[in-house]
Structure formats: C-alpha cells, structure tokens
Design goal:
It is built from 14 helices and 21 strands. The protein is an alpha+beta fold and 574 residues long. The strands form three sheets. Strands 12, 13, 14, 15, 16, 17, 18, 19, 20 and 21 form a ten-stranded mixed beta sheet that branches. Strands 6, 7, 8, 9, 10 and 11 form a six-stranded antiparallel beta sheet that branches.
Length: 574
C-alpha cells in the first residue's frame, strides 16, 4: 500500500474540520491525571473513571475528553445513574459510536457534564433458550451484532435481516430500530420466530434503568412485550438506557447473494407496471434486495438475497462475513479523487469519482469471486467493515403498499436525477456518494410470538392502523463525503420533496433516526418546524394509542431527571 493511500485510509488528510473519511481508529482513552477538565466528585470509587474521545461514524461529531466508565454489571449502571442524578450529570450509553445523528452528544461540547457508559467492555453476555415454541436469545446490550449473530449461528439460529455492519451494539440497534432489507418473496412463509421488520420487532422483553418514585432513585425494571408501557422503549431514540433484551429468533437459513451490475437504472427503477428487470420483480422472486447507485453512473450495484437450502451449482460457499474486501481496500484512483474533491475543493471530479467507485466495486466482485455467494445468513447479511469509506447520509422510511414500491422508486430516482443534473449545470456537486435503497416489512406485532404484543411506538416503520394496506417500507439514503459544499442545501430540497410527494393515501414518511434529517440549508437536525411539528406529527398520524405524546410522557416518567437526554432530543421535545 502506498503512503498516500495509507494516509487517506487512516484519516490523515487533514480532514478534521469536516470529519474523517475512512479508516476507523479507536477513540483515545485518556487518563484522568492529564486532563484539564475538573474530575467529577464523589464518583463511586470502585468504578474506574477515565476520559475518552467520542467520535461518530462519519467523524463529523467529535467531542474530546468525555468522562467515561465501563460498568461491569447492570447494577453498576444503576449506581452511576443515581450518582448522576445527585450530582447534576447526564448519562449516555456509548457503544460503537456507529451513528450519524447526534443522539448521544452534541458536537463541539467542551468538558460536558456527561458520563459515557462504555457497554462494550463488560455488558456483553448472551444466553439461548430453546425450550418454548420459538427460540429466544437474552443478551446484554453491549454485545456487538457480529458476536450476537455468531452465537446464534453456532446454535443453528439466525435473523431474517440485520444492519450490514457487524460493529454495532445490540443496544444501539434497538435504540434506532436498526434494520436490514427483507420482505417475503411471493409464496414465502414466515418462519417461526422471524420478522420482516426491524430488530426492535424481535423483542420479547427488555430491562431498562427507570426512575422509581417510591425509592426516589433509579432502578432496573423489566418490561414484557405485551405490556403497553414497553412501547416507547422498543425504539427509544437514546431517551432511555436498556441493559438487556430478550429477542425471539428463528432457525438459521442458508442464503444466496447474487450481485448484478448490468441493469440500467432506467430499467431497474422504471415506472410501475413496466416489464423487465425492475426492482419490484426481484422483490417478488427473492424478497431481499438492495440497490447501491453510484453518482453519475448508469447501472446500480444490485444485491439480491434468496433463501437457498442447498448450494447452487455456480455459487461460492462462504463461511465468514464481510466478503467484499474491495470495499475496505480502495484503489488509489478512488482515494486520490476523494482527496482532491474535499481537500482541494475540486467538485468537478465528482463524476469521475462516481465512476471510479463503480469500477472498483464491479471489478472487485470479479477479482474476489464474490458475485454469487452462498452460506449461513450471518455471513451474507454482514458486509460493512469499520474500514469502509466514511460518508454522511440522510435517511427516510417511506411506508406504502407493496405494489407501490416500484412507483416510489421511479418517482424518487427521477426527481433525484433531475436535481443532480440541475446542480451540475450550476457547477455544483453536492452528492459524491451512492444512493442506497432497501425494502423491509413493518414492525408488525402480529409477527411477535407473544399474545397482546404492542408495536414499537417510535419506530420509523411502526404500522399505521388507519392504513392497514401499507405493509412495507422503502428506505432511501443518499451518501456524500462530510463537508461537501451545498450538500445540506441539496438534502433539504430532497427532504422537502419526499415529504410532499409521499403523502395522502399513497404513502407516509418518517425519519431514519440514525441518519440525517430535519435539514436547513446549513445543517441537519436544525429545521425547527421539522423538529417540533413535522416529525412529531408523523408519529401521531393514524395512531390510536402509544403515539408521540404518550411516548413522550412515558419516557419522562421513566427518566424525570432527563439523565439520558441530549440537546437533539430536547429540541425534538421528547
């Protein structure tokens, strides 16, 4: 590897003002002795306290020297919470920091009165129970999804769909209803214990740190999925602290993942009712598909997963995840172009950058023999490593009918392409990363193996009782390098169009909590009307119970001292 390429992949291109672009590096732990910030007083002496840098996935949220600890047990978590209540501090669980939105800490904070709880060191236990009608896994929330899925695989169990990165904690995934991409193929029956919604929809019970008015202190409390009080905790957006969860799981499945680069976007995203190789046609045949469309290219990278108990003749068996090594070892052409776009402000290189990404991926599939893979579900569902190119992203879930998916994609991609071309004519290139498209089911409580289960109140894909025909969600994400000029302005235009276009009896829009939303022309999460009206109303619409206001009241009763809140959550009013 050349020195210039190594520098780029370790974030050494002087990009600190706009965020690291690639190459994950662990956040530095700093001893208390070398810090300027005053050490909190009266902190439990038997729980080690230290300072640590918080830095999110894209590198555009970085806060140095945040007081941190690594509780060894849930009881120690409670002790820290009660200390924080009595000493004017906030408490935030800190997992793998693989998030875009500032739900944990606000960027730019100096010596914040926050204790970060590193859950990844000790709160990682898991156990499996196969005694009931469906298998269950009970896991502490600091466990990574890779470790959780590996443990399930060893027991012959798995999940239908999960987020692509393995370096996410279970707690982080549940906080923002992390998801993959899956709906049932035509004629497919849902296996016992499976769900086509987010990971939050698998929860059977969870244990949270909540305030107990009788003792006037925080304590552990376990909530069952058929208890209405659990609804806002199933996707709590960082407004609570979950230490353990029990999830239903299904028998593991063998999957086949085929990649295609030979379908023009005009065919893949053609108008509804079109023939040919449309995205909807692959959903019908396989149920699991993802499109990654690099900027200024004509053919998206289409990945299609299908249930395949026996190995197809031309598939290559894989026994490990993260098979697309070319995504983690980018060629010089790609890294050099990215450097020139950001460091030198040469946006006109964006078309070449998009094409270079396309070539790297399409050639990489051939060079590594990974265009047709077969294996256990974990090894095909996990494919994003921490060393993948770091980008920022917006994100929305479009709730609609299954037979409207092709219409949604055609309308979105047509508008997106028109705006990219309009900006190009002005000499502006705000989007230099791909468009990513996934489709899931909703967080339907009828898929839960517990009578009387409730839906996750704040899940982006909570069903709408007033629209029972809406049974899928189309997830739309647009990626770009942090600090790209005009990106926020472009994101705002896209967001406002999405909200106006996908409405009425056709569809509805909710934000993907972990990504960017609420755009002004200057920044994400900064449009007051979005934060105070549009988003709350999106969770009120069509709901009879456990809507936004009920969730807000419940979360306030669980945490009246707002130990687990953040400036963004305060702005949302939740």
């Amino acid at each position: 590897m050349s020195n210039s390429r190594r520098d780029f992949l370790t974030g050494a291109l002087k990009l600190t003002s706009v965020g690291a672009l690639a190459g994950w590096l662990p956040a530095e732990q700093v001893s208390a002795a070398r810090l300027a910030c005053a050490q909190p007083s009266n902190f439990p002496a038997d729980i080690a306290l230290y300072k640590q840098t918080f830095q999110n996935w894209a590198g555009d949220i970085k806060v140095d020297d945040v007081w941190s600890c690594a509780p060894r047990t849930p009881d120690e978590v409670v002790r820290v919470a009660n200390w924080a209540k009595d000493n004017g501090f906030k408490v935030r669980p800190r997992g793998m920091m693989h998030n875009w939105s500032p739900l944990t800490v606000a960027p730019g904070a100096a010596c914040p009165s926050i204790i970060l709880l590193d859950t990844t060191r000790n709160l990682t236990a898991m156990s499996i129970d196969r005694s009931g009608p469906v298998a269950k896994v009970t896991a502490q929330t600091g466990i990574t999804m890779e470790a959780l899925l590996t443990g399930l695989e060893n027991a012959g169990l798995g999940m239908t769909a999960t987020p692509a990165p393995g370096d996410l904690t279970l707690g982080g995934v549940l906080a923002i209803n992390g998801h993959g991409t899956a709906i049932p193929a035509k004629g497919e029956s849902r296996p016992a214990g499976a769900s086509y919604g987010s990971v939050s929809n698998l929860v059977l019970s969870l244990t949270a740190v909540v305030y107990d008015s009788a003792s006037r202190s925080y304590a552990l409390k376990t909530f069952s999925r058929n208890d209405a009080q659990i609804a806002p905790l199933l996707t709590h957006v960082g407004r609570s602290l979950i230490v353990e969860a029990t999830l239903q799981v299904a028998q593991n499945q063998r999957l086949r993942c085929q990649s295609w680069f030979n379908i023009p976007y005009t065919e893949m995203f053609a108008p509804a009712g079109s023939g040919g190789r449309t995205f909807a046609s692959y959903l019908d045949s396989a149920g699991r598909a993802e499109a990654i469309w690099f900027p200024f290219t004509t053919n998206p990278w289409l990945k299609v997963w299908s249930v395949s108990p026996s190995k197809p003749a031309f598939s290559r068996e894989t026994t490990q995840p993260f098979n697309y090594s070319f995504s983690d070892n980018l060629p010089n052409e790609v890294t050099d172009l990215a450097s020139k776009i950001i460091n030198l402000g040469n946006g006109s290189l964006t078309p070449a950058f998009g094409k270079a990404q396309f070539v790297a991926a399409s050639a990489g599939l051939v060079a590594t023999g990974t265009w047709d893979l077969w294996g256990w579900s974990k090894n095909l569902l996990l494919y994003v490593r921490p060393t993948t190119l770091r980008v920022t992203a917006n994100g929305y879930a479009i709730l609609t009918r299954r037979d409207s998916v092709q219409r949604v994609l055609n309308e979105f991609t047509t508008f997106y392409q028109s705006r990219v071309q309009a900006y190009q004519q002005m000499g502006r290139y705000p989007m230099n990363g791909p468009v990513e498209i996934r489709v899931t089911g909703l967080d339907d409580p009828s898929e839960v193996a517990l009578a009387g289960s409730v839906a996750p109140a704040l899940s982006a894909i909570r069903p709408r009782p007033d629209h029972p025909e809406w049974n899928v969600a189309v997830w739309l994400d647009i990626l770009t390098l942090p600090g790209t000029p005009y990106a926020n302005q472009f994101y705002r235009e896209i967001e406002q169009w999405i909200l106006s276009n996908f409405s009425g009896d056709y569809a509805a829009v909710r934000p993907e909590w972990s990504k960017g939303w609420g755009y002004s022309d200057q920044a994400a999460w900064s449009d007051a009307n979005m934060l105070q009206a549009t988003i709350p109303n999106a969770f009120r619409a069509g709901q009879v119970a456990n809507n936004w206001d009920a969730s807000k009241a419940a979360l306030a009763s669980y945490d009246p001292y707002r130990l687990f809140s953040s400036p963004l959550l305060d702005s949302l009013g939740i």
